[in-house]
Amino acid sequence: MASHRKTWERFEDLRKAAEAGDPQAQCYLGVAYQNGAGVTQDYLEAVKWFRRAADQNDPVAQCYLGFCYLSGQGVPQELGAAAQWFREAAELGDPAAQFNLGMLYETGQGVPQNLAEALKWYHAAAERGEAQAQFNLGVFYEQGQVVRQDFQAAVKWYRLAAEQGIAPAQCNLGLCYQTGRGLPEDQQEAVRWFLRAARQGDKTAQHNLGVYYARKEADQSAAAAEGTTAAGPGTAP
Question: What is the pTM of this model?
Answer without folding.
Answer: 0.87
